[in-house]
Amino acid sequence: VGVGKSCLLLRFSDGSFTTSFITTIGTIELDQKRIKLQIWDTAGQERFRTITTAYYRGAMGILLVYDVTDESSFNNIRNWIRNIEQHASDNVNKILVGNKADMDESKRAVPTSKGQALADEYGIKFFETSAKTNLNVEEVFFSIARDIKQRLADTDSKSEVTFMFLYVWFI
């Protein structure tokens, strides 16, 4: 069973929930501007690590998604952050996401406070989400899009960005 990255993506892209795999390109409206998101749902398993390193350089934003009911998925986040630091651009935006927050507390293996502490350690934002109940799904995507938009505006203040092509990459 995965951490729910594909379900989170599907909930955001068309408002539905399923266990099927999906990758999408979509357009959102952000601050009266059209933003194009190309979203790569990449597998976090070790066997895909060499394939996915090719995507690091093109990524403008990375969502590091773990399953709150699976401590090993959370513990693997540090390895992925090291990989990101090694291969991605220095200014890539990152958000830590604990998914499946709708699960019963008795099934939770990673407390919210532990996720927040890890995000604080790396100086990145943290959300808990549920693709099943739609908890914080839009907030995560709009937050990373806003962060990337702001970073681009800060680096090129002479031109106003009216359309962006963003990679939001799942780990």
UniProtKB/TrEMBL annotation:
<dbReference type="GO" id="GO:0005886">
    <property type="term" value="C:plasma membrane"/>
</dbReference>
<keyword id="KW-0449">Lipoprotein</keyword>
<dbReference type="InterPro" id="IPR001806">
    <property type="entry name" value="Small_GTPase"/>
</dbReference>
<dbReference type="InterPro" id="IPR050305">
    <property type="entry name" value="Small_GTPase_Rab"/>
</dbReference>
<keyword id="KW-1003">Cell membrane</keyword>
<dbReference type="Pfam" id="PF00071">
    <property type="entry name" value="Ras"/>
</dbReference>
<dbReference type="GO" id="GO:0003924">
    <property type="term" value="F:GTPase activity"/>
</dbReference>
<protein>
    <submittedName>
        <fullName>Uncharacterized protein</fullName>
    </submittedName>
</protein>
<dbReference type="InterPro" id="IPR027417">
    <property type="entry name" value="P-loop_NTPase"/>
</dbReference>
<dbReference type="InterPro" id="IPR005225">
    <property type="entry name" value="Small_GTP-bd"/>
</dbReference>
<comment type="similarity">
    <text>Belongs to the small GTPase superfamily. Rab family.</text>
</comment>
<keyword id="KW-0636">Prenylation</keyword>
<keyword id="KW-0342">GTP-binding</keyword>
<comment type="subunit">
    <text>Interacts with PI5K2.</text>
</comment>
<comment type="function">
    <text>Involved in membrane trafficking from the Golgi to the plasma membrane.</text>
</comment>
<dbReference type="GO" id="GO:0005525">
    <property type="term" value="F:GTP binding"/>
</dbReference>
<keyword id="KW-0547">Nucleotide-binding</keyword>
<keyword id="KW-0472">Membrane</keyword>
<dbReference type="GO" id="GO:0000139">
    <property type="term" value="C:Golgi membrane"/>
</dbReference>
